[in-house]
């Protein structure tokens, strides 16, 4: 049966039927035993009275009897009625059962008559006194069972009706939610399911469904904007590449093939950078698991600061902090922040690594023009590049900071732009696994120093495909394997 309302009603009714049947049977037996016990008690009292009078020979004829025990007989050993009450005159013996000598009192039921038989004495020829009364009609005509059965049926019908109504009322919001959900399509995610009053499970379900729909609407809208922006960003280098190739074909005598090839390589490099960043974003948004390991964040920052070119970076490590995460992804974040700071700094870049409130904190500060407070969140959006970033580096993809923030979130951390007296201050916070204060043997003024750019031979010797794909020159010129964070 598909209907929950019908299923719950049937189950409740069947369960209640079993319970009421047991209760009804118990009530019937209790009432029946009580009536019979009272009847046999009265009959025993009357039979005992006349049995005592028989033993002393002082029994009247006929035997006086009153309701309810109005049937009294004295029967000899041969089964002949020798005395009786007026109501029992002319009747055959009430019972043919003679109590044995060792069990002189017996309760008997003869048809609809409850009888108490008492043997006057243990002697073989002892007469027997029978005292009986008609069983109430409620017992021998089954009126009691009919009454109890009728009560059970009424209670069952009432319980089934109440269950049907209560379950139906409970499921009514579910039907409204289902109807509204059937109206929601990918093209229109603005509808929300109705929320019933109260704080029960269905109300919580409706609120959760609306929250899910809100997130889904935001995700779909974000994907639409992303697809539109990505198509626009990809169209420009593709169009430029096509124009260069067409000019080379149309004007072979006027166009230098080497210039065409060099321009095509530049355009293809930009396309490759955009596509690689898009793939990186897709993997991060899909929660693609990355290998987790313990990482000394100060050592990683110091090492990566030495790998770049251009403006020197001053690194200050205030504590040995370990975090758990993907080394390749964290290197990507550090390189993005360092290359971004070098590109926009006027004279210096400062990086500090420390510990604060259970988090490892990496702060990258440059002394450039800075970022206006209104733009501090916008720069983390995909394909967003401020005017200053376009002037300093026209080849970036505008995805570096978006990727960096996604990596931070994937590591349960944050990446924000905070206030700085001059320039921009990017702060990366990650949950720390372990931290130790630096001793005198660990550092030169708490491991503070200026990290100079690596020599070309060193960069070539230490180049790793996963790590070095984020390396850029500090001037923002030349081809890059991956686009950098753009402002």
UniProtKB/TrEMBL annotation:
Main location: membrane
SUPFAM superfamilies, per database record: ATPase domain of HSP90 chaperone/DNA topoisomerase II/histidine kinase, HAMP domain-like, Homodimeric domain of signal transducing histidine kinase
Bilayer-spanning residue ranges: 6-27, 146-164
Keyword check for Ribosomal protein: no
Keyword Kinase: yes
UniProt subcellular location: Cell membrane
Protein name: histidine kinase
Organism name: Streptosporangium vulgare
């Amino acid at each position: 049966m598909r209907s929950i309302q019908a299923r719950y009603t049937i189950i409740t009714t069947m369960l209640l039927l079993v319970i009421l049947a047991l209760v009804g049977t118990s009530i019937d037996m209790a009432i029946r035993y009580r009536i019979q016990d009272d009847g046999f008690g009265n009959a025993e009292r009357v039979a005992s009275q006349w049995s005592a009078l028989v033993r002393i020979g002082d029994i009247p004829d006929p035997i006086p009897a009153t309701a309810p025990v109005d049937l009294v007989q004295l029967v000899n050993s041969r089964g002949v009625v020798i005395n009786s009450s007026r109501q029992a005159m002319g009747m055959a013996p009430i019972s043919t059962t003679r109590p044995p000598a060792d069990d002189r009192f017996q309760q008997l039921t003869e048809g609809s008559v409850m009888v108490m038989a008492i043997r006057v004495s243990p002697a073989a020829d002892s007469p027997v006194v029978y005292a009986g009364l008609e069983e109430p009609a409620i017992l021998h005509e089954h009126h009691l069972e009919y009454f109890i059965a009728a009560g059970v049926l009424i209670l069952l019908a009432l319980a089934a009706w109440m269950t049907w109504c209560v379950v139906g009322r409970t499921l009514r919001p579910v039907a409204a939610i289902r109807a509204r959900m059937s109206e929601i399509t990918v093209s229109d995610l603005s509808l929300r399911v109705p929320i019933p009053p109260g704080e029960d499970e269905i109300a919580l379900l409706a609120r959760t469904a609306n929250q899910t729909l809100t997130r889904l609407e935001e995700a779909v809208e974000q994907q639409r904007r992303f697809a539109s922006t990505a198509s626009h960003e990809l169209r420009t280098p593709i169009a430029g590449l096509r124009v260069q190739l067409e000019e080379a074909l149309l004007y072979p005598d006027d166009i230098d093939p080497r210039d065409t090839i060099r321009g095509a390589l530049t355009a293809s490099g930009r396309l490759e950078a955009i596509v690689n960043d898009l793939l990186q974003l897709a993997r991060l948004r899909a929660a693609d698991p990355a290998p987790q390991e313990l990482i000394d964040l100060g050592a990683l920052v110091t090492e990566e600061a030495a790998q770049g070119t251009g403006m020197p970076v001053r690194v200050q490590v205030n504590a040995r902090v370990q975090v758990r995460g993907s080394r390749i992804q964290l290197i990507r974040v550090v390189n993005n922040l360092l290359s971004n700071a070098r590109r926009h700094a006027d004279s210096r870049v400062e990086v500090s690594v420390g510990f604060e409130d259970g988090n490892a904190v990496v702060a990258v500060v440059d002394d450039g023009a800075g970022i206006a407070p209104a733009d501090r969140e916008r720069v983390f959006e995909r394909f967003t590049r401020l005017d200053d970033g376009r002037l300093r580096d026209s080849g970036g993809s505008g995805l570096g900071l978006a990727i960096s923030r996604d990596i931070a979130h994937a590591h349960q951390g944050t990446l924000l732009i905070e206030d700085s007296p001059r320039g921009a201050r990017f702060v990366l916070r990650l949950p720390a696994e372990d931290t130790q204060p630096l001793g005198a043997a660990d550092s030169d003024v708490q491991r503070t120093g200026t990290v100079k750019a690596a020599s070309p031979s060193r960069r070539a010797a230490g180049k790793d495909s996963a790590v070095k794909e984020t390396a850029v020159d500090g001037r923002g010129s030349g081809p890059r394997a991956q686009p950098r964070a753009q402002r």
